[in-house]
Amino acid sequence: MFNPINALGYTAWILKEVVSGSIDVITHIFKPGTYGHPMIVELPLRCVTDVEITLMASSITITPGTLVVAVGAGDDHRPPTLFVHSLFSDSEDEALEGLRDMESRLLKVTRGRAPGQIREGRKSGDVR
User: Fold this and answer.
1) pTM for the full predicted model
2) What is the pLDDT of residues 47-61, one digit of tens each?
3) 25 near 78, Cβ under 8 Å?
4) What are the DSSP calls for 34-59, one per residue?
5) How would DSSP label each residue in 54-107?
6) Number of C-alpha atoms within 13 angstroms, CB side, residue 121?
7) 3-class DSSP assignment, residue 111
8) Please, are residues 45 and 56 in contact by the beta-carbon 8 Å criterion?
9) What is the C-alpha separation between 19 and 37, in angstroms, rounded?
10) With the C-alpha atoms ordered 9, 10, 15, 21, is the resulting torsion angle positive or negative?
11) What is the pLDDT of residues 108-127, one digit of tens each?
12) Which residues make beta-bridge pairs with 43?
């Protein structure tokens, strides 16, 4: 269920990420010898609808220092996957952590909650 209040929060957060990413790119350009650690990471998605996948890919691409270079279609046995070029992450784990945070924030907008959050009225072990 789409949540307009979360959408405003996500928009503000993504704008902050665009500004901070731009500052990172500019800073690294003018620092000799510290340009970055470019890598391509594979991100299996929790996003399942075309809208969620498109919003996720657009959010990644609009953020300076990251770019979606390919999309792998999901099937019954594996989730959809994005292949993301990351310019400034120190490790694959760091890059994936930031991307998963972005995906959780996006899914909170499109679904009303991030995956793994406990719904009110459910037992603590019962997660969706």
Assistant:
1) 0.81
2) 988 999 999 999 999
3) no
4) -----EEEEEE-S--SHHHHHHHHHH
5) HHHHHHHHHSTTEEEEEEEPP-SSS--EEEEEESS-SSHHHHHHHHHHHHHHHH
6) 0
7) helix
8) yes
9) 20
10) positive
11) 999 877 666 555 544 444 44
12) 82
Tokens at 52, concatenated: 């969620």
Separation CA 61–CA 92 (nearest Å): 18
Q: Which two tokens stand for residue 85?
A: 């070029």
Q: How far apart (Å, rounded) are the C-alpha atoms in residues 23 and 45?
A: 28
Higher-confidence residue of 113 and 100: namely: 100
The helix-helix angle for 92-111 and 4-30 (nearest 10°) equals 160
pLDDT at 2: 77
Confidence of residue 34 (pLDDT cuts 50, 70, 90): low
Question: How many CB atoms within 10 Å of residue 42?
Answer: 12
